[in-house]
Amino acid sequence: MKVNQAEFIISAVGPSQYPEDALPEIALAGRSNVGKSSLINCMISRKNLARTSSQPGKTQTLNYYKINQDLYFVDLPGYGYAKVSKTKREQWGKFIESYLMNRETLRLVMQLVDLRHPPSKDDQAMYEWLRHNDVPVIVIATKADKIPKSRWPKHIKIVRETLGMDKGVQPLMFSSELGLGKDELWGILEQAIAYGEPEPEEANELVIEKVQDKEQEPS
Which SUPFAM superfamilies match (predicted)? Predict the structure, then answer.
């Protein structure tokens, strides 16, 4: 997908603030500082549309970014923030769970994990919850540029085994610094949102046109 336009839309704190234009949504989940904002900026070839922060737990809302007129990236609050109270963590957990379970336009969750370290218990819990509730998910192993290329297979194996991913399912390695995985990820996202495929009414019109053309062919 060629990104011609990308803009921040809203920091939503509840369903009443979610966009109502029915565009498909791709959510980003992961621990604080795993690189969600950097991934967004890399995918849209912008430096700072999504603000990065060194302060864990700063994102406390659903941040909506509109890409062209085709889809939204929805940045979820990061989990694993030690400095946030237990009560606040529980509130955010219910907030995120409600969105993931009830948002009809959600097409895919990108769960980001840091390739340098084994997935945390929070990472494991999130992945298990998504799989248990049949929420489509792709695991993205970020910060691949931070470790030698020769160690990538070992770290990918650790991610797979720690999360308990199905045989044949691989995390996608990604580096915002190098652009590694960008094109492959766009291909996955385009498939998830059925990018370029005609809407049902348009598809019917195409079928009708083909039938009419066939009828008009000389016998």
Answer: P-loop containing nucleoside triphosphate hydrolases (SSF52540)
